[in-house]
Amino acid sequence: MSKTKGRVTLPSETGFLEETKEMMERWGADAIRDSDGTKLSEDLKSLDAKIYTTYFVSRGHNDFSRNHMEETQSLYLMSRHTLAVDTTLRISFMDGYFRQQVMPDYDHDPKIYWEVMDRTLGTVVPVENWEVWTESDEVVLKDIAPYHEYTVSFLVKAIWDPTQMYNHITNNWGDKEHDIPFDVRKKHSNEYIHSYMSQWMKENPRTDVVRFTTFFYHFTLVFNDLGKEKFVDWFGYSASVSVDALEAFAKEKGYRLRPEHIVDKGYYNTAFRVPTKEYLDFIDFQSAYVAKQAKKLVDEVHRHGKEAMMFLGDNWIGTEPYGKYFPEIGLDAVVGSVGGGATLRMISEIPGVKYTEGRFLPYFFPDTFREGNDPTIEAKENWRMARRAIMRKPVDRIGYGGYLSLAYQFPSFVDYIEKVTDEFREIYDNIKGKKPYTGLKVAVLNSWGTLRSWQTHMVAHALWYKQIYSYLGILEALSGDSVEVSFLSFEDVKTNGVPQDVDVLLNAGDAGTAFSGGEEWLDEKLVTTIRRWVYEGGGFIGVGEPSAVHHGGRYFQLADILGVDKELGFSLSTDKYFHTAKEKHFITEGIESPLDFGEGMKNIYALGKDTEILSYHDGQVELSAHDFGKGRGIYIAGLPFNFENARLLHRCMYYAAHKEEELHKLFAENIYVEVHGYPEIGRYALVNNTDSEQKTAVYDEKGRKTMTVLAPQEIRWMEMEKNEE
Hints:
Elements: E1 8-11, H1 17-27, E2 31-33, H2 42-45, E3 50-55, H3 62-65, E4 74-78, E5 82-83, E6 89-92, E7 102-104, H4 110-113, E8 115-118, E9 123-124, E10 130-133, E11 138-141, E12 149-158, H5 162-170, H6 187-203, E13 209-212, E14 220-223, E15 229-233, H7 243-253, H8 259-263, H9 277-303, E16 307-311, E17 333-337, H10 341-348, E18 355-359, H11 375-390, E19 397-399, H12 404-407, H13 411-431, E20 441-446, H14 469-479, E21 484-489, H15 490-496, E22 504-509, H16 524-535, E23 539-544, E24 548-551, E25 554-556, H17 559-562, E26 564-566, E27 604-606, E28 611-617, E29 620-628, E30 631-636, H18 643-656, E31 667-668, E32 673-678, E33 683-688, E34 694-699, E35 705-710, E36 715-719
Parallel strand pairs: 1-2, 1-19, 2-3, 3-13, 13-16, 16-17, 17-18, 18-19, 20-21, 20-22, 22-23, 23-30
Antiparallel strand pairs: 4-12, 5-12, 6-11, 7-12, 8-9, 8-12, 10-11, 14-15, 24-25, 26-27, 28-29, 29-30, 31-34, 32-33, 33-36, 34-35
């Protein structure tokens, strides 16, 4: 592969000039950046490169913060459930929280802004039945019911930024001063962010790109009393609450938010919760405000002739990149952390910006770049997963973050990234702006719809959790599949029906979650709209507990489409005779390894003999297909990501859409090889997704079959047959 240059951002640090020059040459970097904890010296800023400078809007300004501690940011938190054994009770509501991060807010009347809940009854305890003891941080209850559980929902001040706290602990920053976050809704803070921005721009003339990290409100990240993460929700708005926001919300929306609307029984409105009207209103309210304030800062950057880039993380709350207010900010670019294919697509498809950038892993921090560890292993896995998605919709740039001096100590890692950067540029130069071939269109159906495109089943980017990997694998598989992917909310379907160009609807998740839908499925219009659509020829794929809510003698409300339901123990007296799996079927053809359904799903049974059972194990259906009118329903117990499952989902979609005859077009029989076609340029790429040689039959755009062998990780570009005039 010939050496190329550009589209790569390199982290650097003071005192590392010559090594930075070397790395820029080897990786073809055309931009350098600082990181949290590093600075670029003047000699680095003089290099022939675009200079990114990290800019913290509402943290890292302690000279201001210390003089305005009344303007710190706030959070709503909930105490532990506490049992009453008498008619009185004392609750130490700060127990379990890290006092270096948060402190109780006594500046605002707890009787107005706090809430004590009887969790046994689900009711509010009258304010006359409790008092706050500020000396001991306790709430004392009286005249309450014995053997009920109680909680306190209370406001705290944030006195240490959680990302700086995490980096502080990870990198052993010792006595480094704690960043105190302040709230831009407050008068002095709002004035300060604009005056400081103007002055900072004048003092940093060599900065080309202002990298906002990010704007005002951090995602919900709360630490426990041991200084370890207690609660993390990358989408959480709980840390954007303040008395000023609550009062402004009431004035704008015409009703008051309760603490419970934010605390949400202690779940803090994670993305897994079916969102309430009140919470959706709050997201809308905060997003509108953030966009308005952020635009002022971006306009100031543009006034100085610089570019404005937003980091999709840290203080990104209120900047939902697929939300209706995001384009109003006027950003030039967005950069985000790439945990795999799903997060890559989440970044690369953001509308309304000039370019997007992916920050690849691993981060150059000592937890990974340490003696005895090989960071190349993580880098290879990260690149393989992201590359699948890049072939469908590339980001415009890639880069890394952290301490370059650490990465420099690992020569094999440096060698590997040199190959990665060249390969990225080769892919980008071939396909940027070109629509890839797609055989069909699938719409992911959940409570969030387009607002959280490519963000389903995520807690903190692509981190692994036992309860979600069987679902997150679906998004990962789709991120590199040759299908068009869209996202629909239940409200979209109820209001507008299923879009005409959609071939397959996909609903996946545990019962009661926002991704399965919970009580959304009690809506008659939703159910009948989808039934009609499938009956008239659409395809429906359900994974885990799709359309699940107990109602009308069903658990899966679309059991008639799927041909399966889940036994809850209520129909054990009804015999279930159907359990024989088909030996051969279009869906499982060519998949030789045992199917992996992850955590799977217990007690799924076939409703009748017309359900095609494709996998049956330990007394339950794991994979099935079912005709429904002119359409089809498919059930899958779970789908963690691996290449067998990516192929399984691909075949499921084609079968559900009645497009079996179109499968063998730009297609490889070997599951470890994928084919990506680009009709506009008359080329297609064969991609080996493994570290070993792969032999495969390949079908071109006409469906013609040839045999080929690909080297480990190889991408081979092929020419399509030119159409004769």
